[in-house]
Amino acid sequence: MKKVMLYIEDGHIQDSLDLIEVARLLYKDEKVQTYALVIHGGLPSVQGFCDVIMHLVDDRLQSFDQRGIGDVVTAVHTRYSFDAILFLATPMGRLLAPRVAMQLRTGLVADVTGIASDDEGLVVTRPAYGGKIMAGIRFTGDGPVMMSVRPAVFTHTQGQKVDSRLVLLEGLSYRYGSMRKTKTEEKKIAYDIRDSTVLISAGGGMSDMHLLGKLAALLGGEVSASRAVVDKGVLPRAMQVGQSGKTVSPKLYMALGIHGSIQHVEGLKDVQHIISVNTNRNAPMCSISDIVVEGEALPFIQRLVQRIEKGKQLCM
């Protein structure tokens, strides 16, 4: 039986539980026992999903303390000897995973977006060279297998709930980090694009962001963007779709002036319908779209907004 530890990150509990699917894909021909490491809250949300819940209660250990939490993960592995240790590829996970890998003297694959098998065994996929290519990586050696996984790429579908066994972690040896929280700023946007069922997404060919927001509101959706828009500072990084942004699965994705590089397309998963508006009908984004409108994005949005508003007035 394979033993896999999932680090349940505070504030990302649902995404952390999706790592159960990653564990299944890693050892799909073998029985897997999942161990959830819970340090800061979220205990009720994890029960019934993982076979074993390892709970550490320590008010002095802050959720952003990568040094202390890294020591905890290392100490827990030393006690239980896992076959694999999985993290989310969040800002915290990207700091925590390599620290643990160094302590355990093992390899690490970061930002995993795919898991597959061939005649030679297991292959995991991740973006490389700034997202310009996708690299396939094989695991060798004794392990443990360690990886950080892009949130929202894999989805765990809960079947019958398991009878979780709770273990209170005691007697672990770990240090506390020296970082302290000095202030907290609210998010610049009040939504997470990964939760949206409709996304109106701006590319380098789109200029009027206010009109973009108006269209999104009329359709009951939110605004997102490609990297080209974010790099210009027009919209915040939290709204970026793609390999260096977020992976999204809306019912409708409207790509306005988006060329559609592989880095951007990799951020789209299980999208039901895609509409592209582009001056270049041969743009890569158009090849995966259900509807393609050839032309400038701004006039298209203006007319679409007018049409929707007129339709709503007629229905009143």
**Oligomeric form:** single chain
Spans of at least 5 consecutive residues whose pLDDT stays below 50 are: none
How many DSSP-defined strands? 15
Q: What's the end-to-end separation, in Å?
A: 62 Å
Helix content: 25-40%
Mean pLDDT: 89
β-sheet strand percentage: 15-25%
Tell the overall outline.
elongated
**How many helical elements?**
10
H-E order? EHHEHEHEHEEEEEEEHEHEHEHEH
Rounded radius of gyration (Å): 22 Å
Kindly report the spatial arrangement of strands forming the biggest sheet. 5-9-4-1-2-3-10
Structural class based on helices, strands and sheet pairing: alpha/beta
Please outline the major beta sheet.
7 strands, parallel
Structural account:
With 316 residues, this protein is an alpha/beta fold. It has 10 helices and 15 strands. It has helices at 13-17, 19-26, 43-46, 66-80, 91-104, 209-218, 227-231, 262-265, 284-287, 297-315, and strands spanning 2-8, 32-38, 52-55, 84-88, 109-112, 114-118, 121-128, 133-137, 145-149, 165-168, 198-202, 222-225, 252-256, 273-278, 291-294. Strand 7 and strand 8 (133-137) form a beta hairpin. Helix 4 crosses helix 5. It is elongated. The model has no long low-confidence stretch (mean pLDDT 89).
Which characteristics define this entry?
single chain, 316 residues, alpha/beta, elongated
Question: Topology of this protein?
Answer:
Layout: E1 2-8, H1 13-17, H2 19-26, E2 32-38, H3 43-46, E3 52-55, H4 66-80, E4 84-88, H5 91-104, E5 109-112, E6 114-118, E7 121-128, E8 133-137, E9 145-149, E10 165-168, E11 198-202, H6 209-218, E12 222-225, H7 227-231, E13 252-256, H8 262-265, E14 273-278, H9 284-287, E15 291-294, H10 297-315
Parallel strand pairs: 1-2, 1-4, 2-3, 3-10, 4-9, 5-9, 11-12, 11-13, 13-14, 14-15
Antiparallel strand pairs: 6-7, 7-8
Helix pairs in contact: 4-5, 6-10
